[in-house]
Amino acid sequence: KCPPGSYSTKINGVTECKPCPVGEYKDTAGNQTCTPCPANKSTYSEGSIHVNDCK
């Protein structure tokens, strides 16, 4: 499972954890995708773990 702030992606058949892109966050561990920030808000860096990181 990927830790909070990252999501699971498959590259050449190998599963890797990648940080959530700017503008998205993930506050739980697991392989689900990251959640986009609310409208007109964005994160400042990759790997954000909380909606409060969206400014």
**Structural class estimated from helices and strands:** mainly beta
Sheet with most strands: strand arrangement: 1-2
- Discrete helix count: 0
H/E series: EEEE
The average pLDDT is 97
Helix content: under 10%
| Content of β-strand | 25-35%
Coarse shape: elongated
pLDDT < 50 stretches:
none
Largest sheet: 2 strands, antiparallel
Termini separation: 27 Å
- Return Rg in Å: 11 Å
Count the beta strands.
4
Pfam families: Ephrin_rec_like
Domain Tyrosine-protein kinase ephrin type A/B receptor-like: 5-54
Protein name: Tyrosine-protein kinase ephrin type A/B receptor-like domain-containing protein
What do these coordinates show?
With 55 residues, the protein is an all-beta fold. The chain has a domain at 6-43. Helices cover 0% and strands 29% of the residues. The protein contains no helices and 4 strands. It has strands at 6-11, 14-19, 24-25, 35-36. It has a two-stranded antiparallel ribbon with strand order 1-2. A two-stranded antiparallel ribbon has the order 3-4. The termini are far apart. The model has no long low-confidence stretch (mean pLDDT 97).
